[in-house]
């Protein structure tokens, strides 16, 4: 099997030119456009296991995994078979069906949430959980953390991470982070610093009685990987003393860091949780859930309205059931992912050291960011620290490994995602490519 990535991707270039004529920026989600690393985005023709194949036939070891969902690898036989079987029975009903019950039973069993509601994206999950928190508490304000990303709902595009850390061209853009978000909406979103328990405590002491919910990424992926300190996690749990609900946004970490996500790994006790990505096995699904007494506020049981034409879609439910079912049946996958990603981290570390390149690696399980800056591994804990990375050095790394057949996340401020299909061969290829990238990078 050869990895063969040409320097120019002529079909991708042609498709990108056509796409730009009909779609803003040529893409349907901003980071895909490669704006922060330069060059032409590769248009993907198909994907299998740990590999993406682009429109020119070049194959890449994939570290995006569709930004998280593909934990089993692409085109997994069990997921494909489940979707194919569902397809024979029709693609959407607009009425309840058995797979929705089965997936809800599986999710509640794995996570301990008593009730779960399916939606079609992570954005809908966080947006709906916040509406629920406001409905339950009768309070207007919410609190989020700088550099955390919870999807693109208006009130959440405030000091947001992910694509917003690079697309505006300016790090740390002031609130709101997007044009089109009225200041009045943004004013209902309070912002505190991630991993700063004192700042959170004092904001809560002053405003806690007005705050419906604190929403957070339990391990941040959207400013690059940031790991919460035990002191910060304790401060997060204290927000409930003010009657504020604690919402763990597990859209990225759910079913990735453990079968019970970051909640299980870190021993969290959130009131509500949001899921996305893996829960739909690569099809569009999000979900939110928690204790029955809270979730029963959601319509039609309660007064908080939330609905969706394609919610609980049979194909999406089938993909989620197959994916979560495979994870539950093979819990050793989590050790395997941890081992691979640990070896990847160690290999990047020594390759960068040999080349004299500054690098600081943050990793939890199969989420990893290698920040291009010379501070010790694990020491980058805040948005500002992450934002101090050398994005030009990252762009060099990205382009160099891409040309060698490795598809890394096209932004310094994202996590990479390893799948169960990544093995020794992929590790070896990745580290060989990284060696060359660091050796040829300027310092
Ligand atoms: N929350 C987190 C933590 C995310 O990482 C994302 C997407 O990357 C979202 C919410 C939004 O999910 P979606 O893109 O499915 O709307």
TrEMBL record:
PROSITE patterns: AA_TRANSFER_CLASS_3 (PS00600). It catalyses: (S)-4-amino-5-oxopentanoate = 5-aminolevulinate. SUPFAM superfamilies: PLP-dependent transferases (SSF53383). GO terms for molecular function: glutamate-1-semialdehyde 2,1-aminomutase activity. Homodimer. Belongs to the class-III pyridoxal-phosphate-dependent aminotransferase family. HemL subfamily. This is Glutamate-1-semialdehyde 2,1-aminomutase.
